[in-house]
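Sequence only, no structure available. Ideas?
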Amino acid sequence: MVAPPLFQIEDLHVTADGAPILRGVDLTVEEGEVHALMGPNGSGKSTLANALLGNPSYRVTSGRILFRGEDITGWPTDVRGKAGVFLAFQYPEEIAGVPVVQFLRQALSARKGMELSVLELRVSIMEWMKKLGMDPSFGDRYLNEGFSGGEKKRNEILQMAILEPEVAILDETDSGLDIDALRTVAQGIREVRASRPSLGVLLITHYQRILDELTPDRVHILLDGRVVDSGGPELARRLEEGGYESWRR
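Reply:
I predicted one. Tokens follow.
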């Protein structure tokens, strides 16, 4: 019996504030694959990311989201996260009073279904912080409070490393980063993938530059709420050279 794909989006239609945003998106991510989803502002990229994690402000009006063959379209956000679906936010939230280490302990305990101590996690967290170029003192700082843009994005990758998801949706993880921070974040993603080869990644981005660091298996172009083209890495290079005009006709 053939196993179902890791993650599937089938004819997904989504509205926000009553307005249709996604108009039938189809996409399949297999184990170990990196897919890049590219599109201009207003194309529906962040709407898709929010819908995939069950943000109640985005309503799925038709279509399905499948995780290992199971329909998760109606699952609450926390249930999706516990099952192994991860979202790295474009604009990570600050949570005053909650240290990074404590946040990770609570999140991983929920994911594993058992209480873990900070001591059990600290060694692993320190190892990953070193790989991500993060000062070890970040572990005791409040989540994202006072962090630079690059530090917030590296903290998202730290969460991905510690929580060990099966599929990761990275919503414009490269936005607002200078080239050095971008390379550090990309290296962190490579490190996570090396430690978890079966991890599937959906990378949502505006830019070619992160794809120079993380070569995708598939590239998809999203325009006006629909995937209008899919192909290999050459599709992103074609987009970089000529923009979206050839797909608007």
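The chain has a mean pLDDT of 88.
Hope that gets you unstuck.
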